[in-house]
Design brief:
Blueprint: H1 12-25, E1 39-44, E2 49-53, H2 66-77, E3 86-92, H3 103-112, E4 119-123, E5 138-141, H4 142-145, H5 152-156
Parallel strand pairs: 3-4
Antiparallel strand pairs: 1-2, 1-3, 4-5
Helix pairs in contact: 2-3
This protein binds 2'-deoxyuridine and zinc ion (ZN).
Zinc ion binds at residues 65, 67, 101-102, 104-105.
Length: 159
């Protein structure tokens, strides 16, 4: 998506739902090779939530991360350009501080983000508990996670 526009901030309720769904999605991870569970959830501008989990295969580079697992079916099942925009993504792992999306997923998220300000919330072993040792949720935007990105706009600039 090449249009850049601002997105509506999440309400407390929406963020809690997004986080809970990402954390719950870890249960669906198929990760017998790494035993590293990852869950993801995307909130769209139409109010729908879409989850994913990492899926590994014996030929280990072939597996897919939770983030791309959540996003690809959205893109493949909704009509563009009217496709709802991404409002936020949550990623949940069992480590603390939480893991952040890999480079491949950052590029994938960037492709479908309509703003550099798309928030990515990362949850670790403390789940949605933001208190305790301060190692709870981490939030960064896709612009922060992938600075000076190469994306759809750059392809347009070459036409
Ligand atoms: O943000 C991340 C980081 C890792 N993984 C997966 C890939 C692999 O299945 C396992 C270990 O790298 O975790 C994700 O799904 N998302
Ligand atoms: Zn990834």
């Amino acid at each position: 998506m090449s249009t850049r526009s601002s997105i509506e901030p999440l309400s407390k309720e929406e963020l809690k739902t997004l986080a809970t769904k990402a954390i719950d999605a870890k249960e669906y991870a198929y990760c017998p090779y790494s035993n590293f569970r990852v869950g993801a959830c995307v909130l769209l501008s139409d109010g729908t939530y879409h989850t994913g989990a990492n899926v590994e295969v014996a030929s280990t580079p072939v597996g897919i991360c939770a983030e791309r697992c959540a996003i690809a079916p959205i893109v493949a099942s909704l009509k563009r350009p009217a496709m709802p925009t991404l409002r936020a993504i949550a990623v949940a792992t069992d480590i603390s501080p939480p893991a952040s999306p890999c480079g491949m997923c950052r590029q994938f998220i960037n492709e479908f983000a309509t703003t550099k300000d798309l928030p990515i919330y990362m949850y670790g072993k403390d789940g949605i508990d933001q208190g305790g040792d301060g190692n709870g949720v981490v939030m960064m935007t896709i612009g922060e996670l992938l600075p000076m990105s190469f994306g759809p706009n750059d392809m347009d600039r070459n036409r």
